[in-house]
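Exercise: predict the fold of this chain.
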Amino acid sequence: MNMPPTQYQPKPYTGPSADEVYRLRKEFLNPALFHLYQKPLMIVEGKGQYV
């Protein structure tokens, strides 16, 4: 399946790294809140219905 063409260009990501987000999750979130994957999925930007 091909995506429709778009003029949108995402901005460069300047936020925390995936490792930093994972470290913060372990530090501040309750251990009962867990994820089913080894590394956190980082979705940082989307446009309309596209992520």
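Check your answer against the key: The longest helix spans residues 18-28.
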